[in-house]
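Lab notebook, bench 4. The sequencing result for the construct came back, and we need a structural model before the next group meeting so we can plan mutations. Quick request posted to the team channel:

Model the 3D structure of this chain.
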Amino acid sequence: MMLENWILTILVSAGVGSVLFIVALFMLVRNNAHANIFWNELVLEKITNFVMDQSKEQRILNSVSYNAIRGDPESVLDCIDKYCSKNEWAMNVGDEKGLILDKIVEEIDPSIVLELGTYCGYSAIRIARLLKPKARLLTVENNAEFVPIAKEIIEIAGLSDKVTIIQGFSQDVIPQLKETYQVDTLDFVFLDHWKERYAPDTILLEECGLLRKGSVLLADNIIFPGAPEFIKYIRSNKRFECTSYPSHLEYMKLEDAMEKAVYLG
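Done. Here's the predicted structure in token form:
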């Protein structure tokens, strides 16, 4: 009888411990943005992908296909924002920082734009919808699975004529821009790819003669996950005039910011 009571006590304790662990994990995920991202990206997304036999990006495309108004960029953006804020977090620039992006594009009124990091095409749509006739956007994405999804979403938005998606790594594509894509210099560059590439790609843009006096760079996620080498480089460089725009990580309350750097030549 004593053995049975001991076993029962262990089982009850284990059960209570498991419940407390689950509750603690839930509270951590709910109240900590870092834990929330970890849970969504590395746990929940993997499970959902396995069960549904499709990627999160494909589910975003499905949502746009079913709910957005074809040929209406605002409808597509709204659809993606709703899906990513209510269903699955995704690394788009998002609606809050998207307004900063909009403002800068409108101020510059660029003719030729380079985006590094296409993902599902959200920021490409935000930029392209504001471009004047005959202006063009070149957007670079190295992930072969994202490219067709972004292409279809951009097509649904009715902006395929303004956007050229280039599949490849930024360090390989940048040196080809002048010869292969007939780019003289860039009016605007939006950096939203691997954060470790922000600094070396900025240097590469300079070395390739793609920046002219007045060219504007805008970098996303300079606080989270952060791009310290890029910030150190441009803020200590007399060739750049920098402005920081405090904001929040897309679809979350976590502090983030964007950095604008005007090339002074």
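The radius of gyration is 22 Å.
Will bring this to the meeting.
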